[in-house]
Every structure is written in structure tokens, then in C-alpha cells.
Amino acid sequence: MNDAQIAEWLCNEFKAEKAEKVEHIQALWSGYGEIARYELTSNGQSRSLVVKHVNLHEQTSHPRGWSGQRSHDRKVSSYFNEQIFYQAISPVLNQGALNCKVPTCMSTQHSDQHVLLVLEDLDASGFRARYTDINPSTQMNIVHATIEWLACFHASMLTVDTSKLWPVGTYWHLGTREDEWQVMPNSALKSAAKEIDATLNSAQYRTLLHGDAKLANFCYSRSVVSSVDIAAVDFQYAGRGVGIKDLVYFLGSCFDESALAQHAPGCIGHYFNYLNNAVCQVAPNIDIKALEAEWRYLEVFAWADFERFLSGWSPSHFKLNAYSDAKTQDALSRLTRE
């Protein structure tokens, strides 16, 4: 579909007199389409919506060289996964007791050629700021508030049926990254990759993971006080797993090597404090002490799992640092002892 066809469909879908693309927000990874803002006009009144348009037949050059059928199939699967998330799960979050804000899904359409997601415009709903817009003096407050959002999200999803989504969340999990694993140099990490994956996936306590919980996928109000001032986007890789995987990945998106050593332990403590309160509120039958003990134990395996992915996908990536490596070595040592 081109812009004119999307505009015509929006007019029909929302009984609008006019629909106009007013802003290109961003291109999708590897050229699979775009996210754009459209303005709809009816009876002299205007409103804006965000349209995520995915071209399912695009197979353009990957920024790091990872093109091919397996990569394409994963992308296509992830876009259908995201459509299911917005249709089935976003209402549960937006109407839930913990106020985990995500964009409301206004409509969807798909064919064998494309997926259209029509979403609430978070800018118009007051979530205009991004992390880069925040005063540096308050950025740790933003980090803590976003961790609170993740804790609320994980608590909310502990007992919700998400069986129509990916059975394993995150974009880097081993089941979808055989090619990257194959090119890893021979190492203890490569040899232990399947055991690390199994250790994480066999946990007793699993929730729904965001799957790509980096700073760039959160939107903020101008005055962030708590998690209710935050909304999350981009749920292509939502699926089951231990919440610590989302948290470890998020911390890696916030801090460099030295800052991780300084801030990560406190941030993890903050997460579990908030998670304890949230679980008691929405899932009181969950043994929160046992859950926390399990997820804390699995922290090093979450670091090792992501390091395994980066080691094959981009061996010179800046996130492959001494802090992550120390956590990975700890995970490997535990496997040896056990």
C-alpha cells in the first residue's frame, strides 16, 4: 500500500472526510516499512493517529549484514506477533490496576503483503518526551521510573494468558538466532549456549517480556514522577520469559561499563522492591519470595544469553564489555559446578 491508499483506507475505517500523512516518524529496521503520523478530519475536527505500515515482502540489506530467509521469516513472524499483542494484550494493560500504559490499538489490517497497525498517538496523549529530551540532572530518575514500569508490566502479565504470542520473548533468544550462533568462535560460551537458553526457559516463574526494552522504546510525559508518566512501544518480540531478561537488557541500554558497575546493583534492587509491591497487588497467590530468588539467580544467565547473541551478531559491539563478561563467566562457572 502506498500513502494514498493508506489514507483512503483510514477515511473508510474511521468515517473521516480526509486523512493526510503529516509526518514520517521513522523507518522500520532493514527497510520493512515505516511509522508515520496521519491527521484525520471529520466535521471540522482533527485528530492524529500513528500508523505502522509493514511491507512483508521487503528483504533489504541488513545494517550489519544479517540478511537471508531465516532473518526475513523472523521479522514477518514478529510483526504478526505485535499485531496480536496490540489486539489482545494492550487492553489488559491499559485497563489494569497498575497503569502500564501502551498505545491503544485503534484498528489493524493485514494481508500476505502487508500489516497495518493504527495506534493511539502518544504525543497527543501527553507522552511527547524521549529520554534524550530529559534534563541530564534527572536522568537517573527516568531510569528508576522506567524500571518501575517494567516491574508493573511483569507483575501484570504473570497470570495472563499470552499463549497466542511468541512462546519465548526477546529478539535475541537462541531459537531464532541459529545463524549468529553458528558464526561464533569456538568458546565456552558457544558450547554452553543451549544450556543457558534451557536454564532461562525452564524457570518456574515466567511472565510476558517486552522483548526489546531499550530506552528508545519508552515515551515520557514532560514531568516524570513515576511509572504512570511512561508509555512503552514496539512489542514485536513480546513473549514469555523471566523478567530479569528485560531488566538486564534495559540496563545495558542505559549505562556503559563503568556506570553499570556503579548503578546496576541498585537498579536491580529497585526493580525487585517495586515488583514485590506490584505482585502483591495483582497476583497475591504468587510466591514473590520464591520468584525473586529465582530471577536474581538467573541474572547472570540473562547477561550471558545476550552476550552470546552479540558475540555472533556484532563481535565488536560496545555492549560487549568487562561488566557483561564478568557476569557471563559467573554463569559459565555455575553451569560447571552444577
What report would you give on this structure?
The protein is α+β, with helices and mostly antiparallel strands. It has two domains: 1-120, Phosphorylase Kinase, domain 1 (2-Layer Sandwich), CATH 3.30.200.20; 126-337, Aminoglycoside phosphotransferase (APH), C-terminal lobe (Aminoglycoside 3'-phosphotransferase, Chain: A, domain 2, Alpha-Beta Complex), CATH 3.90.1200. It contains ten helices and nine strands. The strands form three sheets. The chain has a five-stranded antiparallel beta sheet. A two-stranded antiparallel sheet has the order 6-9. Helix 6 packs antiparallel against helix 7 (257-282). The radius of gyration is 20 Å and the shape is globular.
Describe how the helices and strands are arranged.
Layout: H1 3-14, E1 18-27, E2 33-42, E3 45-55, H2 69-94, E4 105-110, E5 114-120, H3 139-157, H4 178-182, H5 188-201, E6 207-209, E7 218-220, E8 230-232, E9 239-241, H6 243-254, H7 257-282, H8 288-297, H9 299-313, H10 322-337
Antiparallel strand pairs: 1-2, 2-3, 3-5, 4-5, 6-9, 7-8
In short:
By secondary structure, the protein is α+β, with helices and mostly antiparallel strands. It has helices spanning 3-14, 69-94, 139-157, 178-182, 188-201, 243-254, 257-282, 288-297, 299-313, 322-337, and strands spanning 18-27, 33-42, 45-55, 105-110, 114-120, 207-209, 218-220, 230-232, 239-241. 46% of the residues lie in helices and 17% in strands.
